[in-house]
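User: Sequence recovery, please. Input:
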């Protein structure tokens, strides 16, 4: 990380001691990065103050689509690095990230590899992604004017919770499997890069729908 100028390391439920002698030996001259690392009990907590989160994954599936390659991801996130906090999320060495963890991120990154050995180890994935980001930042002139500041993950997750409750109440979502549609909606809003004002507008919409549904139910009860 330090080779490419990154120093905010966040670990979620690490399985081993990140300050062990072995970890320090592996870090060589970047031991300070381990000492300053922040530990979290959940990925949601780790992303609370982030404005844009991109997760890496190798597996494809129903809810894993619209991928960016590392160079595309670097170009995508570069304009936002001066306007907000951007997070790259890497999964476990053995099984990567769960679908629920990918839901917390706005975009997905996949590294094209051979089918003979498709999965790269964690260190290789980190180096490749950070290299592409560093290269993009060195060659692209960022223009701060006209760029909006993104809403944080904390604000977005609160809005998503409101959206879920509202859309369930009005019968738009299948109560047995609401995530089927919700994941698609999260991807749409994630790609849009919502700012605080836009989130407030959407929450105003959900609140209006909440009110209309309450009034509809009152009318139904009165007729009964």
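Assistant: Recovered sequence (224 residues):
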């Amino acid at each position: 990380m330090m080779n490419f100028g990154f120093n905010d390391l966040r670990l979620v439920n690490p399985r081993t001691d990140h300050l062990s002698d072995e970890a320090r030996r592996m870090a060589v001259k970047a031991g300070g990065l381990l000492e300053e690392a922040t530990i979290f009990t959940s990925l949601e907590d780790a992303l609370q103050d982030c404005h844009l989160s991109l997760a890496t994954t190798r597996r494809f599936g129903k809810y894993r689509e619209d991928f960016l390659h590392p160079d595309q991801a670097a170009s995508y996130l570069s304009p936002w690095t001066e306007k907000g906090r951007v997070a790259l999320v890497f999964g476990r060495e053995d099984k990567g990230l769960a679908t629920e963890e990918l839901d917390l991120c706005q975009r997905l990154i996949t590294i094209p590899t051979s089918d003979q050995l498709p999965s790269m180890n964690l260190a290789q994935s980190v180096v490749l992604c950070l290299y592409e980001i560093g290269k993009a930042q060195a060659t692209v002139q960022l223009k701060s004017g006209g760029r909006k500041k993104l809403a944080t993950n904390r604000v977005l997750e609160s809005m998503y919770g409101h959206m879920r409750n509202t859309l369930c109440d009005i019968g738009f979502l299948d109560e047995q499997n609401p995530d089927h549609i919700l994941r698609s909606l999260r991807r749409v809003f994630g790609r849009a890069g919502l700012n605080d004002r836009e989130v407030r507008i959407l929450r105003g919409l959900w609140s209006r729908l909440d009110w209309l549904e309450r009034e509809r139910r009152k009318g139904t009860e009165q007729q009964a």
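Residues 141-146 have pLDDT under 50 and may be disordered.
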